[in-house]
Amino acid sequence: MNHDVNPQAADDNEPTDESRAEPFDPATFQPEAVPVEDAEVAAEVLDFWAATRQYAGMAKASIVVGQTVGETVPPQAWSFGDEPELAERLLDAVLAGDKTATSSALWDYDDEGAPLPVVGELSILLDGGNHPRALIRTTSVETTTFEEVDEDFAAAEGEDDRTLESWRAGHESYFRRNLPEGREFAPDMPVVCERFELLYPRL
Question: Where are the stretches annotated Disordered (predicted)?
Fold first, then answer.
């Protein structure tokens, strides 16, 4: 929730981490009113969705009844991390089947008035260059505390050595670096833990 489609580089001296990025919705973009680079991303996402929506089970019905709004409007697109290299690395982990989860501070959603992810929600993942590369579907969403995240979820995030110890170290550093003013890291801070499945490309 802390990063947009043009992620800023993180402090090179700080460990990097990932959380769900600020969503990018190409359906709301008017090409004449946005920077060229955003219009290009929107066009790529629309093309990607047209080519991959069948993997979300939306192709056969549209042949019979025509495309619905839900089929033509693409899901929100976002990238992992707070800099392009991290976005690439974590996307590679998703494509390899190693990363099937992500987490973020509940406060990010609260402060921005954004809805939490929901089971069944589709997302398009962007790479470090803001190009669409993968289609995923959320399979579970749980809000817990930082200190209650378990070893299984830490391993599902697919980062570093996939241990709970490294998850805690990396995420604490990330939260301390990125929490908005007025928010401070604490072991009992609320964390949104999201699991997902890779729909495209298939493993």
Answer: 1-31
